[in-house]
Amino acid sequence: MTGARTSQLAINGGTPVRGPDKSWPVWPVFDDAECQALADVAQSGRWWYGERIKQFEQEYAAFQDTKHCVTCTSGTAALEIALRVLGIGQGDEVIVPAYTFIATASAVMWVGATPVFADVDDSWNLNPELIEPAITLRTKAIMPVHFAGRVADMDSISAIADRHGLNVIEDACHSWGSKWKGKGTGALGLGGAFSFQFSKNITAAEGGAILSNDDAFAEACRSVANCGRGGEGSEWFVHVRLGTNARMTEFQAAVLSAQLTRLEEQTLRREKNAALLDNELGAIEGLTPQPGDDRITRRAYHLYCLRIRPEEFGCPREQFCSAAQAEGLPIAAGYGRPLYQQPVFANYGGGHDYTQYHCPVSEDLCYASGMWIFHSALLGSEADMRDIVAIVKKIKHHVSELS
Fold it and tell me: How far is CA 60 from CA 36, 71, 191, 294, 297, in A?
């Protein structure tokens, strides 16, 4: 009887592969380094826009192989600031992927411009072949997303941008540590935005940054984030451009510096564990891990992304996720709709009818095939990864028992 329960799916009353005695790594990861850093800032009395900010900016720019890092309050703010510095606004268009978090598109709307959606391809990233058909006389920039840490095809995207005289702003909010042909994301185009929100692979609960190798662009981003003030040596109450208050605190910067000391090791561990999963899960009929690219020389994993082909695997995605969760696997379906179907676009002007969009890959990811495993699970041991494989194989073996 015990053997029967062990082989039966947990969702049908069997014993789960991972019971209460087995836990996944928790997030965020922190220790005395963060606590001491916070205490040091508190005791210093210098809580605001000082040396800790400068220290983290230098550290993070070096980590991402970039000349400039400008911190701010969030990844969303970073995108908005970058677009404002480029003068993008009313009447302009920015090409963005249809499968991404709302901030990629809402940042475009926030500056008064119009997001134009292009579909993703099997990489889960912007399909380069669909960018040029979306370019019009109003197009001012392309905003690729390195979704889940998988770098978009920046060679193709940059070549298209060069041909049409467009700027490339990377939404790099999932790609801390990812490298394209040996170079970190964030300055593969003119600049890139990063997020340090609570769920992110390096976190201070909130926070963001803009990276760039362009001196003038970085200086302007810092000015906009700092109420439009000029650079070093400028008078404090002289404002040279329209800006906002998007400054990070010393507390956040101190925490991020502590977090950064672990990021490389964590990135490499996630990458190693993801490779094991790719090899094992990719061999199971009906499942396809998010593919890599030989030009990606280091890959951050904010999410481990997996697609199911229901007719081949034997059950719909929702049944698979429910069965996997019952076995102890933290997996979910991700975004429930492509961005152009979000209610916010129903009443958005700009002469764009978003009801006419149809991006088949994005819609398939949202409605049928896309699944995510949160990045902290990839910080587990090889035995943990073997449990993930065992869970999926168990579901596959007993798929006919799902109703």
Answer: 20, 10, 14, 25, 18
Structure tokens at 100: 């991404």
CA 332 – CA 335 distance, rounded (Å): 9
Q: What is the CATH number of domain 2-19+262-401?
A: 3.90.1150.10
Q: What integer is the mean pLDDT of 18-29?
A: 96
Whole-number Å distance between alpha carbons of 152 and 73: 25
Domain ranges of the chain: 2-19+262-401, 32-258
Lowest mean pLDDT among 101-105, 126-130, 147-151, 349-353: 349-353
How confident is the model over 318-364, as pLDDT tens digits?
A: 999 999 999 999 999 999 999 999 999 987 766 788 999 999 999 99
The rounded distance, in Å, linking the Cα atoms of 17 and 27 is 22
Q: Alpha-carbon distance 259 to 264, whole Å?
A: 10
What is the CATH number that goes with domain 32-258? 3.40.640.10
